[in-house]
Amino acid sequence: MLYERLYTERGNAAPQLEKEYRYLTTDLLVRPPRFAVVEEVIMPSYSKLAWRGKMMFDWAHVLHRQIYDAYSDESLTPTQRDALIERLTDYYLSNRKYAFTDKPKTMALMDEQYFSQTFRKAYPKFNGLIWAYHWLQVGLYEPFLEGQTEAERKSGVQATLARFWSMLQDPTSRMPKVMPMTSAVAPKFSAAHPRAAVIFDNLHMTHDIISDILTADTIPHDQKGRMIDDQLDKLQDPARDVISMDEWWMMADHMGGIEAMGGPAAGLVRLVRAPATPLEAGQMHGAMPGMAADSGRTGHDMGQMKAPMKGMAHDSMPPTGGDATRMPGMDHGQGGTGQGAMKGHTEMMDLHARMMADPVIRKRVMADSAMRSLMTHMMDSVGAARPGTPASGRTQKHEGHGQQKREPSGRELSPAKPPAPSPRPAKPEPADSGHQGHSLGAPAALKGAT
């Protein structure tokens, strides 16, 4: 649907995309269809233009759904489940015609070509929705790995879904500011299945690249199909435009950390429930800013980073939802700390960031529980004394891979279970063709997690 509008409207897609945004967030995602939408029906012109791209997206989305099913099968042991996911990944890669490479690609493909970032700048709200949905697609894996029992896993899935809905409550302020990286949003899944994680990052990167090609007026309309094919060649090539796995693991920090990507998918965070009905969702949507009301960061501009590790500057973090519970240190209007103390605290934070950026130091700290506890206590003390920085609710590195993980602060709100949607009239149902691209059909876990 998105690609069809961008391709056929030729630079005048804003009014139609606003209508589509409202439909997606107040109807389709509230009452998802039982079967995936057939893309050829809703975007015939784009399908003719870029059939190969459509099929590559379809094939990667099949892998997404298969992994959801593997995690949802309670008859499998963790060992059996992991082995199954690796076999599914092997099967995915065996289709060389339509498989993305499992080698991580440089972000320059998405952010540094002459047409890059045009879509997110022209349509920030819709771009935020796409990134939020990509966050959900990979984030749903984490509660299956975090939960120790079936009940905990189901509760975790509901919490992740509620976190997704909280992103849509106030666009674009709560939406991801950069493309969510699987290594950051789903660190446990990425550690267990790095090939699949890289495939999904390459998939999501390609979504952005094609959106930019279709939006950019610097690419002639009759050349857009050829340009898409050229980019798909790069995303399938395991030898060019690649980075190392170590660089891939560190990329999320360079892009701004998990907080810039929508926040953690697992763990307790302040959440809102999904709207009960399309009418209620429409009332929520009525308070949303316009399509061009995005003042947030639109790219991965390395020059904007002021510290080696984003996420340590707690006073710049947005709230994770609702009205924040009052906590010691959160009342910024009360007094202050002297300039000398502020400088000392900042230097201490920067020193910690530089130390933890070193993989050898980080590995030793994370392997020594006493040292890790001492480091955490030290940073808590510095954070509590720093103006505008809460003593709790800190972010800390995920052990082993440098990914941030947010700990709960204050009283946390349990996510409310989305009420069952009202029944729709019976109608003929198309055959299931798998999870389909930017139609934003709900993932399998989203539709059956209640």
Could you characterize the architecture of this molecule?
- With 450 residues, the chain is mainly α.
- The protein has two domains: 2-301 and 424-448, no CATH class; 338-386.
- It is 53% helix and 2% strand.
- It has a two-stranded antiparallel ribbon.
- Helix 1 packs parallel to helix 14 and helix 2 crosses helix 17 (278-285).
- The radius of gyration is 22 Å and the shape is globular.
**Biggest sheet, open or closed, and with what strands and sense?**
2 strands, antiparallel
Number of helices: 21
Poorly predicted sequence stretches spanning 5 or more consecutive residues = 283-338, 385-439, 444-450
Give the count of structural domains.
2
- By DSSP, the count of extended strands is 2
Indicate the radius of gyration in whole angstroms.
22 Å
Report mean pLDDT, rounded to a whole number: 76
Which geometry do the CA atoms define?
A: globular
Please bin the fraction of helical residues: 40-55%
Strand content: under 5%
Topology diagram in text:
Elements: H1 2-9, H2 14-28, H3 39-42, H4 44-49, H5 51-72, H6 78-94, H7 108-111, H8 118-122, H9 124-139, H10 141-146, H11 150-169, H12 182-185, H13 187-192, H14 194-215, H15 224-236, H16 245-255, H17 278-285, H18 339-357, H19 359-367, H20 369-385, E1 395-398, E2 403-406, H21 444-448
Antiparallel strand pairs: 1-2
